[in-house]
Design goal:
By secondary structure, this protein is an alpha/beta fold. It has a single domain, classed as 3-Layer(aba) Sandwich (Rossmann fold). It contains eight helices and ten strands. Helix 3 runs parallel beside helix 5. The strands form two sheets. Strands 6-7-8-3-9-10 form a six-stranded mixed beta sheet, with helices on both faces. Strands 2-1-4-5 form a four-stranded antiparallel beta sheet. The structure holds adenosine-5'-triphosphate and magnesium ion (MG). Adenosine-5'-triphosphate (ATP) binds next to strand 2 and helix 1.
């Protein structure tokens, strides 16, 4: 099995404010890997450092055998890595269709139309909302739009930051199921989640972040059923 992402000894943060204290983590081809952990432990910062948005001090990010540690965001996207941020992940004043177009600014219009069509196969209800403003969408629909937009660039590796936060159980289930199915399209996924049991039960492996580093890792299904995991993570009870 080939390695999609190999993270070794990453420290980083925001200028001189250190948040990450040495992160080691990997994602293999076709895996869905969940990262959980208490609020403020550095999960979002980790993805931002990987994506060139926050500062890396030390350590390496190897993507499919290439050291991309110092790469800019746009270059990472061209390489097939996509990122759905935790907040502000749609443009509220644009329509659903325009939001999807923003996901493929350098794609020719015929291809773009096809990609948008394919992205909508994942969440068919998007099709009926194309000319509505993103501001008019529910929280769940916004997350679906944000994920669909990330797929327009045809990534092979997707990073998702809490896509089910604050959603109803029905939407949570629909979104995690859709993420799980991305593996059929050969997309490997690193998923940050608060809904630990739900996402671990669909994942291959899990990591627990505490204080800017990995406190525990293991088989995701075993973690989902391990009562001691709750010691790391207050939100573990469902
Ligand atoms: N732009 C920033 N500048 C300085 N510190 C920041 C910045 N953004 C976040 N932080 C701090 O970094 C720490 C880690 O935040 P981060 O958002 O990575 O946590 P998280 O694990 O994603 O939490 P949550 O589960 O609430 O999303 C927090 O103490 C936060 O206040
Ligand atoms: Mg976060």
């Amino acid at each position: 099995m080939s390695r999609v992402l190999d993270v070794k000894g990453v420290t980083g943060g925001y200028r001189s404010v250190q948040i990450l204290n040495g992160v080691d983590l990997y994602v293999d081809e076709g895996e869905l890997v969940t990262v959980i952990g208490p609020n403020g432990c550095g999960k979002s910062t980790f993805i931002k450092v990987l994506f060139g948005i926050a500062d890396r001090y030390e350590g390496t990010f190897i993507h499919r055998g290439v050291d991309v540690s110092s790469w800019r965001t746009d270059k990472l996207v061209k390489r097939g890595i996509a990122y759905v941020p935790q907040v502000d992940n749609v443009f509220p004043s644009l329509t659903v269709y325009e939001n999807l177009q923003m996901g493929g600014l350098d794609i020719g219009s015929a291809d773009l139309h096809n990609r948008i069509d394919q992205a909508c196969d994942m969440f068919p209800e998007m099709r009926t909302r194309m000319s509505d403003l993103a501001a008019s969408l529910s929280g769940g629909e916004r997350q679906m739009l944000a994920i669909s937009r990330a797929l327009i660039s045809a990534p092979t590796f997707l990073l998702l930051d809490e896509p089910t936060a604050a959603l109803s159980p029905l939407y949570q289930d629909q979104i995690i199921t859709a993420i799980d199915e991305l593996r059929k399209d050969s997309i490997s996924v690193l998923l940050i989640e608060q809904n630990a049991k739900l996402s671990l039960s669909r994942s291959d492996r899990g990591y627990i972040f505490v204080g800017g580093k990995i406190a525990h890792t293991g088989n995701a299904k075993e973690m989902a059923n391990d009562p001691s995991i709750g010691e790391y993570f207050l939100g573990f009870q469902d």
